[in-house]
Structures are given as C-alpha cells and as structure tokens.
Amino acid sequence: MLDLLFWIAIFVVSLAVLVKAASYFTKYSEKLGSALGIPQFIIGVTIISIGTSLPELATSLIAVFKGSTEIVAGNAVGSNIANILLVVGLTAVLTRKMVVKRSLINLDAPLLLAVTFLAGFVLWDKQVTFVESLFLIASYLVYILYSVYSRSKGEESSSKKGKVSFKMVAMIALGGLGVYLGAKYSIDSVLNISEILKINSSVIALSAIALGTSLPEVLVSISAARKGNYEMALGNVFGSNIFNIAMVIGIPGLISTLDVSGETFLIAIPFMVAATILYVVSGISQKIYGWEGALYLVIYFLFIGKLFGLV
Fold first, then answer.
1. Which of 82, 114, 141, 195 has its CA 20 to 30 A from that of 93?
2. CATH of domain 2-155+164-307
C-alpha cells in the first residue's frame, strides 16, 4: 500500500513538473520567436500548438526508450479524447456559448477529420511501423504548410524585432530539462503503479497521463474563451489533436515499432473517432452551446467508465 501511495505521489509531482516546464518552454520560445521577428500566425501554428502538446510527445518518447511502446498510442488517443470531450465540453459549459469562426471549420476541421481517419487505418493492425510513422508525420507537415499558406495572405514578417536575452535562452533550456525529468518520472511511476495494481499500463496512459498532459489545453482554452477569443480556444484543440495523432505517434514510431493495446483498439479509438466527428458536426453551426458541452462531459465519463470496466 505504501509503495502504491509513493508512486502515485511521484506521478502527481512529475506530471505537475512536466506541465509547468512545458508552459515555460512554450512561453519563452514564443518570446524568442517574437524577438527574432517571426510572424505571429507562424508562432501560433508552430510554437504554441506544439508547446501545448509537448507533454504528450515527451512522455511518449520516454515510454519508447523504456520499451513500453503500448503507452504511446494510448497517450495520444486518450489526449485527443480528453481535448475534445473534456476541454471543449468544460469550456462550453463555463462560457454557455462558443462562437466558431467559419475559417476554422473550413480549414482545420476537415484536416482534423482526415488525420483522425488516417490514424484509424494506421492503428487498425494494432501496431505502427516505421513507414506508417512517415505517413503520419507527412500529414502534419501538410497541415502546417496549408495553415501557413492559408493564413499568411496579407501577413508580413514583423519588422519590429526585440532583443534576445539570456533569460529567454536560459528559461527555454530549463523548461526543456524540466520536460525531460517530468516525463521520465511520469513513465517510471506509471509502470510501477500498473505493476502494483496489475493493470495494463495503457489504461493509465489513456486516462491519467492523457488527462494530465491535456492540462495545458484546458488552461489555454478556458482562458481564451473567457476573453471572448473562441477561435483560439477551439483552434488550440484542433492544432493539438492533429499534432498528437501525427507527431506524438509518428516520431516515436520512427524509433521503434509501436504496439497498440486491446483497450486502445477496442475502446479508445472508436471513442476518438466518434468524438472527432461530433466535434466537427457541432462546429458546422458555428456555435457550441453549454448543453452540448455538458453532453461532451457525459460521454467522457462514459469513456472512463468503459475503460475501467465500471459500465
């Protein structure tokens, strides 16, 4: 019992360090980009969207190096489910109504749907190979190039450059170190907890790790929505989910062939596909109401119940 409590405490602390370090890494990377005169829209589709998904990528890479490849798909798929059902659901409930801009639906929604179905095909045989990982990474490059092309019309590089300070570089380095240490001990604790409880580590990846690593998206989306910036609140989820599927699975898949657990295949993937379709359909009306958000939350709790055999 003491061993279990110890590793749960390590998991909570390491996850908190991971999320906070990723936040600092993203914040100062964004400042560095601005100081170098990089246009804001490029910073948005690269640094910010990647930064909020850095915890997922870090934990997945550490999992591969430790030989627990089944955690990777579980982490990415579970995070996408949490991002849509929990992040969007909670944000919609708190704001009562979110207005979606047409540009978001025309650009990001079809790409998210396409990448989600691509992931479904890749994961269908319960493994991810090197070649399949290349396809996933290529899909993300298409998303980035299309986003930059579509949003760069009329945009110019900022002629107003700032000063690159030692603090920026130091905080990026410290943030990176914190991400590594947080990810390492998060995976260590997950493997020990799963061994003590005799449950599959992918179940913890689908629930606890996915929920914890989705905290940056929760904070960014709720904060943006409260300021009335619904495009940022929802666009953050679109960009993060595409990154999770394409890169959080794709990059580790270049290192080693990834296994897909039964829980991920039978429970999580159907929920992810259904949640993505629901999200896109909700966005067609350009409004997501509080009652829709409440429905999202109900479906998320159903997913957790199914995962642990409670329903």
1. 114
2. 1.20.1420.30
**For residue 168, which of 30, 47, 54, 22 has the smallest C-alpha distance?**
30
Give the span between the Cα atoms of 215 and 223, in whole angstroms: 12
Q: What is the pLDDT of residues 64-89, one digit of tens each?
A: 998 889 999 998 999 999 989 998 89
Q: Could you tell me the pLDDT band of residue 15, with boundaries at 50, 70 and 90? A: confident
Query: What pLDDT, on the 0 to 100 scale, is given for residue 103?
Result: 60
Per-residue DSSP letters for 198-224? T--HHHHIIIIIHHHHTHHHHHHHHHH
Residue 136, helix vs strand vs coil? helix
Quote the longest CA-to-CA distance of the chain: 61
Residue 307 has which token pair? Answer: 């995962």
Picking from 59, 58, 23, 33, the residue whose alpha carbon sits closest to that of residue 175 is 23
- CA distance linking residue 136 with residue 122, whole number of Å: 9
Write the CA distances from 50 to 59, 79, 184, 192, integer angstroms: 14, 14, 19, 29
pTM over the 0.70 mark: yes
CA distance 283 to 270: 20
Write out the H or E segment, with its range, that includes residue 259. Answer: strand 258-259
Please tell me which residue, 52 or 92, carries the higher pLDDT value.
92
Query: What whole-number percentage of the chain has pLDDT above 90?
Result: 29
Contact 80, 279 (CB under 8 A): no
